Amino acid sequence: MRLGIFRDARPQATLLLAAAALSIVLWFIPFAEILTYPFRIFVTFIHEGGHAIAALLTGNSVQSLSIATNASGETYTSQGGTFSQMFVASAGYLGAMAYGTLLLVLIRKAVAARVVLIGSAAVVLALTLIYGLLKPILSGAAWSAIPFTILAGTLLTLGLILAARFASGRVATFFVSFLAAQCVLNALLDLKTVFFLSSPFAPSVPTDAVNMANATGIPAFIWATIWIAIALAILALAMRIYVVTRDSRIQPDLRFEEIPRS
């Protein structure tokens, strides 16, 4: 059965390709990281949120979640069994990839971009208040990381809400596509970095892959390779859902639906 791009998906696919192309071009422009810095912080929130959610799903607790000014992050959780440690360590990069692909699928399935932006704002705000502020205070974690985490989380939340409120439907859709592209591309770029850092010839640097190696005894570079393969598989599946469908008598999905302003 032939495969092709559905006609109703082409405008969305065009926006996605434009967002991905812009993300890549900005990598090669000097000082463009200033423009992409808020998006990088957003991806870090999603990455660290993946660790936190994985810990909760495996019956562990989360002591703190912090974001640094260099866009790195740390999440401290209680340590469970081997499966729990593996799940938590894997949930950062793969969580960011999964979130980016989820944004793509939501838009493809005609979920309004404003709803997606508000939902993302709620995710960032919840991570900021619960694990960036309340839990560190209650668990006695270091306070030095709290101010920037709160500032970054608050500004990101406000930015997403403002984009949802005032951007046109097309601009909001492009913004969500750009967020998705940033999540996907940064996850792949970070996994590439982890792969090289996991080489037996590289200097010892703490990474999620090293945590996996400590939990399982399997070398870190093997875990980095497995994560890259899984991330690419997630991306391939999402792209198939996003723009490709079987040439059958299935009714086309509805076009992107906007929510009327009050």
How would you sum up this structure, described in words?
By secondary structure, the protein is mainly α. The chain has one domain. It is built from nine helices and four strands. The strands form two sheets. It has a two-stranded antiparallel sheet. A two-stranded antiparallel sheet has the order 2-3. Helix 2 (33-57) crosses helix 7 (169-197) and helix 5 (113-139) packs across helix 7. The termini are far apart.
Order of strands across the biggest sheet?
1-4
Strand residues, percent:
5-15%
Gross geometry: globular
Seen as an oligomer or otherwise, the chain set is single chain
Q: Give the biggest beta sheet.
A: 2 strands, antiparallel
List the uncertain runs. Answer: 246-262
* Helix-and-strand structural type: mainly alpha
Helix content: 55-70%
Domains counted in the coordinates: how many?
1
Structure annotation, total helices:
9
Cα-to-Cα separation, first versus last residue: 45 Å
For the secondary structure, the number of strands is 4
H/E topology pattern: EHHEEHHHHHHHE
Averaged pLDDT, please? 82
Rg computed from alpha carbons, rounded to a whole number of angstroms: 19 Å
Topology:
Elements: E1 3-5, H1 10-27, H2 33-57, E2 62-67, E3 73-77, H3 82-90, H4 93-108, H5 113-139, H6 146-166, H7 169-197, H8 208-216, H9 220-243, E4 244-246
Antiparallel strand pairs: 1-4, 2-3
Helix pairs in contact: 1-7, 2-3, 2-4, 2-5, 2-7, 3-8, 4-7, 4-9, 5-6, 5-7, 7-9, 8-9
